[in-house]
């Protein structure tokens, strides 16, 4: 569960303080939430509040971790990358999970919330595919052989195992985005935030990544300009001028956005 409590974001500029996000109060319990809106409306800012990349200037944002998503549970239904959405829906938050404050519990929040960026290259640091996933696993798998096995298993889950020793620079855009998602999910976050994950992809790869995200067992927040993808969520929030302009069923939200764009 993700809760925004009167959260604002104000950035200092040369001409004074700029309010990027006016007070936002939202509670996300749905498995899949899409966030849409015009350029510069504040969508990424809202998304970045969720994993503490940005701290609210006033108010607060809290995260209640869901049941741990284990490899076996997530992978029980087979490879999601190649075959499309196959995983089970997210489970409800456990009553025993303590809420984490994004400003005060930074480490725990970043372990709980995985973040996928628009440009997967921004997330790729290591030269080869397997090393890149291993880097994500350095904290959770201290021993090298275990880390390698877990990385291979993560790649296998997304149909990328055959590319393990390839250079990350040799991957196609779709493969790179898949790798970025595989690396983030290898750490088993209970919430995933994806900021425009299909923007740089062609139609086929955009659908593939969309299928994957919608099929994940994790609670997933997707910021997107892809209204086809946004429509597949359980709930859609429209952001305009740093405010929540509409919040509701995807079809109604998209209709509102089309009418006001
Ligand atoms: N640190 C900052 N200082 C000043 N202005 C900022 C800062 N960060 C963001 N902004 C401005 O805040 C507004 C919202 O930015 P944000 O990236 O959240 O928009 P967005 O809805 O994700 O846009 P897009 O769809 O174009 O990616 C933009 O006008 C942006 O220029």
Description:
The protein is of the alpha/beta class. Helix content is 34%, strand content 25%. The protein is built from ten helices and ten strands. It has helices at 43-50, 71-75, 80-83, 106-112, 129-136, 144-157, 173-186, 203-215, 227-230, 250-260, and strands at 2-13, 16-28, 32-37, 58-63, 100-101, 113-116, 191-195, 219-223, 235-240, 243-248. The chain has a six-stranded mixed β-sheet, with helices on both faces. The chain is globular. The model is unreliable at 69-95 (pLDDT under 50). Adenosine-5'-triphosphate binds next to β1, β2 and α1.
What distance lies between the first and last C-alpha atoms, to the nearest angstrom? Answer: 30 Å
Overall 3D shape: globular
Q: Which hetero compounds are present in the coordinates?
A: adenosine-5'-triphosphate
Number of helices: 10
Query: What is Rg?
Result: 18 Å
Give the structural class. alpha/beta
Q: Beta-strand percentage? A: 15-25%
Major β-sheet annotation: 6 strands, mixed
Summarize the model shown.
By secondary structure, the protein is an alpha/beta fold. The protein has helices spanning 43-50, 71-75, 80-83, 106-112, 129-136, 144-157, 173-186, 203-215, 227-230, 250-260; strands spanning 2-13, 16-28, 32-37, 58-63, 100-101, 113-116, 191-195, 219-223, 235-240, 243-248.
List keywords for this structure.
binds adenosine-5'-triphosphate; alpha/beta; single chain; globular; 10 strands; 6-stranded mixed beta sheet; 261 residues; 10 helices; 4-stranded antiparallel beta sheet
